[in-house]
Amino acid sequence: MTLIKYYDYDTISNSSSTGAWNATTNSPLSPAITSHSPNFLIWLILVLSANLFGAITNLLIAIATLTYRPIRCCSSSGLIAHCASLDVIRSIIVYPGLSLIAFLGPYHHFPQSACRYVGGLAYILVYTTNWAYCCLGVHRLCAVALPHHFRYLTQKSAVAAINLFPWLLSALLALFPFFGIGVEFVYTQPWNGCVIGPLGDRDAGFVLAMGTFLPSAISLIAHAAILMQVRMSARNRRRRVTTVKEEEDLRNQYDQQMITLNSEATQRRYDISRMLFVCSVWTFVVSLMLPLVISWAPAYLATNYPAQTWLRFLQFLSSAFNPVS
């Protein structure tokens, strides 16, 4: 079944490293559409403007985290600065670049061989960011669940190793499509872009799962566990406060003030944990919508240009509005 002139889904799904979609050849693909509608121009302006805003705000976050002493003393400051820096790179390079490729596609021939390098750079940065936020979430969970052993994870060597891990894993995952080992970077139409294919293939789904689904799910579970732990701690503290009131009847004003301060601190930790959980849900949704459709409904995505546009709109805003850090 030929979906569009230059995109045969059956060929992409079932053939080997040959055919019009092959990303290892140098022959250009003629674009499937010849011009853009005004809606796409609005989409492009929104994406570029949002990513410019995101680059500036995340750069300020990274600088403040590394230079402002109260924040720099935080145990997760190195991980937060790393995540913010990755979001700056995505906001400046990855998503504006992919948007411009989609915009210029109808007017210029795009060499399929470029997918190998464009896709490789984009996927390494995106997967590294996903795993960096995953490591940040697990690091926060360890602070709550393992307070007596958490000091080992705050050492400079440990923080450096945690920041290095996402880069190594993402580079390993990108090696497979870059060298055509089971999967390749596929140039898709009518959206002019590069994805890991063959679309709907098991190997391509495995790479997507390891680079996107797994770290996003771990991060969401970690923040949910933190919220539950802090909520249980707040309930236990309220019970202890009630017991103190009954048995000692708040013998002096100092005890009452200390109880009030502890209650306020616990409530503040709970509010922060709840906010982080909500933010992790937002990140989970915007990051996974496009990969899920690519994995489970590639034929629908290939024939539905509006779906491609607006699903990418969510993903392309994920770095600009990512409050998890």
Rg from Cα? 24 Å
Query: What's the end-to-end separation, in Å?
Result: 45 Å
Q: What is the overall shape?
A: globular
Largest sheet, strands/sense/barrel: 2 strands, antiparallel
Low-confidence stretches: 1-31, 253-261
Please state roughly what percent of the residues sit in beta strands, choosing from under 5%, 5-15%, 15-25%, 25-35%, 35-45% or over 45%: 5-15%
The average pLDDT value, as a whole number, equals 76
Q: What can you see in these coordinates?
A:
The chain is mainly alpha-helical and 325 residues long. 71% of the residues lie in helices and 6% in strands. It contains 10 helices and 6 strands; from the N terminus they run ββαβαααβααββαααα. The strands form 3 sheets. It has a two-stranded antiparallel sheet. The protein has a two-stranded antiparallel ribbon with strand order 3-4. A hairpin with a 2-residue loop joins strand 1 and strand 2. 39% of the residues are buried.
Main traits of this protein?
globular, two-stranded antiparallel sheet, disordered N terminus, mainly alpha, two-stranded antiparallel ribbon, 325 residues
Short description:
By secondary structure, this protein is mostly helical.
Write the layout of secondary structure elements.
Blueprint: E1 2-4, E2 7-8, H1 9-14, E3 28-29, H2 38-67, H3 69-72, H4 77-104, E4 110-111, H5 114-145, H6 156-178, E5 184-188, E6 193-197, H7 202-248, H8 253-296, H9 298-303, H10 305-316
Antiparallel strand pairs: 1-2, 3-4, 5-6
